[in-house]
What we know:
The protein is α/β, with parallel strands linked by helices. 42% of the residues lie in helices and 15% in strands.
Amino acid sequence: MAAQRIRELLHDVAPGFHVLADFRWLESMDPAAAPYIAKIMDALAEKEVASVTRVMPDPRKDIGLNILSQFHYGPHVQIATFETLADALQNIAAKVDSPSA
């Protein structure tokens, strides 16, 4: 359901867009969520996402996003994880200001 909604939202989005995934309020995640997250990643990859920037204040709460990313985004998608939203936004701004980065 969520992956389909992502597809709908991205219908008119041009390739090369940037995604910000904010996990600041994540307390825990059931491993059963992995297939749904994978479908969302696939939907983003189908639309040729350029980069995914994550905010994950507590790295211990990362439930395997890096592993899922390797299989669902491919090597061409830039992935970065930051502990603060400010650092994540600064990273995105730098990419937008310098598209070749």
